[in-house]
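Sample pair:
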Amino acid sequence: MTLPKTMRAVVIHRHGGPEVLTLEREWPRPVAGPGEIVVAVKACALNYLDIFTREGMPGEPTPLPHITGGDVAGLVAEVGPGVDRPLVGERVLLDPHWGCGRCPYCLDGETTRCLRGHMLGEMDPGGLAEYVRAPATQAIAIPPHYPFDLAGCLPVAWGTAWRMVVTHSGVTPGDVVVVTAAAGGVGLGAVQLARLQGARVVALASSDEKLARLKTLGADETINYVTDPDWDVTVRRLTGKRGADVVIETVGASTWERSIRALGKGGRLVTSGATSGPIGPTDIRYLFRREHRIIGSNGWTHTELLRLAAHAFAGRVTPVVDRVLPLERTAEGEVALAGRSVFGKVVITPDAA
């Protein structure tokens, strides 16, 4: 099949609010170069990274014009020279992050620390389009039974959650794990992955409706942080004053101080985000008296994503899709995500031919 020379894509020509998201109907389609594939996008899940990139991130200039969208699942439409796998027509999800392959971190296998890393939708054109290009090595096969919209939820949010829960915090059976913003993309992944590791999960969210749904997804206890602003005290009460073994922290300024207070002796706080602000007060006395560990977590490795995908494809964990929208309603999806009016992921379906 001959592919079209152009495609529909949501393009940002300048940084700003949702109004800068422009639906271009004849944007140049990417062409696969050596070692690359082009994927016909069937699902692209939204993340806060899409919003941050659209608004512009200090110190991280984005080449404009630009297409955001890092979470991509679809069909291989074209392969470049030297590509043996995957084949045209195969169902794949894309690992959106890869390293330069040359810096000391990449040579040690620590691609999350790469000095010149690549990320679909951030520095490289992303999946909010009918087609996207990526190295063939980033493709992960999707089984025939597994829906594209669920596969498209896995890389960014769930990959981040895997690295936080499994790799960095080392959750073991019986650990008490507190998940802040548990109704978000990373939070929902963290709740299910912590439960999969045998932990006792305490989930925080902003409404009783969200908390009820979290119970069905593996949360043992839930706390409404709006009606219970002293939720760290509640955590200590639920644990017989012992405190949590692990806090999965993605919110930042508004929860940081209480996240530290909720930790018990020897507790680990793993942080990967600061959606409410980057500066949070820290009482250093808690850190040394209780021997806390604060661990930063950034992204995921390809191996971690492969392990996560295996669990998802086997049905041991399941992403939650809040809504599915067509490409032309991408701005609506980003507004809903930014306003925290979603439970789970917003998925965009470009419906490439």
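The CA atoms of residues 52 and 334 lie 11 Å apart.
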